[in-house]
């Protein structure tokens, strides 16, 4: 979640949503995202709304669970009073920051609040992010007993000098131990990787892929490093202390990842995500993230967290102290919101669904956008047979140029 919040309309103190959110609600899943904004160390590349202990004097991590639980109660009240139908929660995701810096009992209490307030679907997916040095076997067992089903481990790289540039402090040898402990607890496991770090070689990236695959996780995410303005890494590159990111290497690393993961039995289902199993068996895909890409409903709990319900998007105040103060005063922590018009929602659908293996129906495109498909086929950016049958699905080359494909599908 980026640290900068967009400018938009003020959000009402009671959090109430407009009547338009009711339309089609029965066909949309409901998810809950809980943003735990605490980190032991701020990584130089990170632009998320996170805080170390030195940055949040006067804010107690030990108070956060109760604050989040208060927002869960607010969420239920707002959704009910806004006329939305009662729906069980399909997915819960604890992100951050480092959620597992909190005691596992606090994470369990927050999950219990979601369960008791909304009920969970019988097959609900419940994920927490974790750093390899922030959780142990006993903690993973406690999370599984509390109802967590999945852990997403921030591996990023297996190479010490790459981790050093990213300012990741964990021991890469901890990763296989954590993965094995999670499996023994009955949890599904995802590993997050970052490629294209300044100074990372093709051999370094191959080493990280091999180390990740040796753990035999259920799911792997591989993200190109984006150097965000205002981060420490951006300043280091500007001063010449760290070499700039090489976009050509990004493409080569992505192709290497896709080839290696596919050969190992993982199938891409979103441009940056691969899951074990067969191409048509979605058991290990991240259902929570897919809900974002498909435009379902989710309530974001925590400082700076974003929410979306029925075409209305809002975001909470950023600082943990301001967040706590608003909840203590009995008002919504939302800082601003926007109501998306039909055209904006269509454009976002094109942006997001184009990235999925199921692709985008061409009937979501304007006549100009549909005419662009023929040239995309000629340029080998979309699968020809599927496009001719009415669905835009990216080829490997198209995944490398996904943003360019979207621009051509959304002509001015």
From TrEMBL:
<dbReference type="Pfam" id="PF04055">
    <property type="entry name" value="Radical_SAM"/>
</dbReference>
<keyword id="KW-0560">Oxidoreductase</keyword>
<dbReference type="InterPro" id="IPR004559">
    <property type="entry name" value="HemW-like"/>
</dbReference>
<keyword id="KW-0949">S-adenosyl-L-methionine</keyword>
<keyword id="KW-0411">Iron-sulfur</keyword>
<dbReference type="InterPro" id="IPR007197">
    <property type="entry name" value="rSAM"/>
</dbReference>
<keyword id="KW-0143">Chaperone</keyword>
<dbReference type="InterPro" id="IPR058240">
    <property type="entry name" value="rSAM_sf"/>
</dbReference>
<dbReference type="GO" id="GO:0004109">
    <property type="term" value="F:coproporphyrinogen oxidase activity"/>
</dbReference>
<dbReference type="GO" id="GO:0046872">
    <property type="term" value="F:metal ion binding"/>
</dbReference>
<keyword id="KW-0408">Iron</keyword>
<comment type="function">
    <text>Probably acts as a heme chaperone, transferring heme to an unknown acceptor. Binds one molecule of heme per monomer, possibly covalently. Binds 1 [4Fe-4S] cluster. The cluster is coordinated with 3 cysteines and an exchangeable S-adenosyl-L-methionine.</text>
</comment>
<keyword id="KW-0004">4Fe-4S</keyword>
<dbReference type="GO" id="GO:0005737">
    <property type="term" value="C:cytoplasm"/>
</dbReference>
<protein>
    <recommendedName>
        <fullName>Heme chaperone HemW</fullName>
    </recommendedName>
</protein>
<dbReference type="InterPro" id="IPR013785">
    <property type="entry name" value="Aldolase_TIM"/>
</dbReference>
<keyword id="KW-0479">Metal-binding</keyword>
<feature type="domain" description="Radical SAM core">
    <location>
        <begin position="24"/>
        <end position="270"/>
    </location>
</feature>
<dbReference type="GO" id="GO:0051539">
    <property type="term" value="F:4 iron, 4 sulfur cluster binding"/>
</dbReference>
<keyword id="KW-0963">Cytoplasm</keyword>
<comment type="similarity">
    <text>Belongs to the anaerobic coproporphyrinogen-III oxidase family. HemW subfamily.</text>
</comment>
<dbReference type="InterPro" id="IPR006638">
    <property type="entry name" value="Elp3/MiaA/NifB-like_rSAM"/>
</dbReference>
<keyword id="KW-0349">Heme</keyword>
<dbReference type="InterPro" id="IPR034505">
    <property type="entry name" value="Coproporphyrinogen-III_oxidase"/>
</dbReference>
<dbReference type="GO" id="GO:0006779">
    <property type="term" value="P:porphyrin-containing compound biosynthetic process"/>
</dbReference>
């Amino acid at each position: 979640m980026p640290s900068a919040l967009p400018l938009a309309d003020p959000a009402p103190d009671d959090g109430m949503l407009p009547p338009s959110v009711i339309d089609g609600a029965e066909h949309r899943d409901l998810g809950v995202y809980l943003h735990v904004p605490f980190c032991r160390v701020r990584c130089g590349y990170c632009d998320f709304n996170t805080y170390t202990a030195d940055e949040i004097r006067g804010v107690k991590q030990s108070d956060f669970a109760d604050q989040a639980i208060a927002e869960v109660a607010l969420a239920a009240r707002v959704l009910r009073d806004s006329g939305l139908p009662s729906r069980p929660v399909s997915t819960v995701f604890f992100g951050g920051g480092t959620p597992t810096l909190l005691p596992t009992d606090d994470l369990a209490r927050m999950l219990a609040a979601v369960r008791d307030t909304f009920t969970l679907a019988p097959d609900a997916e419940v994920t927490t992010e974790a750093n390899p040095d922030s959780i142990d076997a006993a903690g993973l067992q406690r999370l599984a007993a509390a109802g967590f089903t999945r852990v997403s481990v921030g591996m990023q790289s297996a190479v010490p000098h790459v981790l050093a540039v990213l300012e990741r402090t964990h021991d890469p040898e901890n990763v296989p131990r954590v993965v094995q402990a999670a499996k023994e607890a009955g949890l599904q496991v995802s590993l997050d990787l970052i490629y294209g770090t300044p100074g990372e070689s093709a051999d370094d990236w191959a080493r990280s892929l091999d180390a990740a695959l040796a753990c035999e996780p259920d799911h792997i995410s591989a993200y190109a490093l984006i150097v965000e303005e205002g981060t420490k890494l951006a300043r280091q590159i500007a001063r010449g202390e760290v070499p700039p990111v090489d976009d050509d290497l990004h493409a080569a690393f992505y192709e290497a990842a896709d080839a290696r993961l596919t050969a190992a039995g993982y199938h891409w289902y979103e441009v940056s995500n691969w899951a074990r199993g067969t191409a048509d068996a979605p058991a290990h895909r991240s259902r929570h993230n897919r809900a974002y890409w498909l435009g379902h409903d989710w309530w974001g709990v925590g400082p700076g967290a974003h929410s979306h319900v029925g075409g209305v998007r809002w975001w909470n105040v950023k600082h943990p102290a301001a967040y706590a103060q608003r909840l203590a005063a009995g008002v919504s922590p939302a800082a601003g919101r926007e109501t998306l018009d039909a055209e904006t929602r269509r454009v976002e659908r094109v942006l997001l669904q184009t990235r999925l293996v199921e692709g985008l129906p061409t009937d979501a495109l304007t006549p100009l956008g549909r005419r662009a498909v023929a040239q995309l086929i000629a340029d080998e950016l979309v699968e020809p047979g599927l496009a001719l049958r009415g669905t835009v699905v990216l080829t490997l080359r198209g995944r490398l140029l996904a943003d360019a494909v979207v621009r051509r599908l959304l002509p001015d």
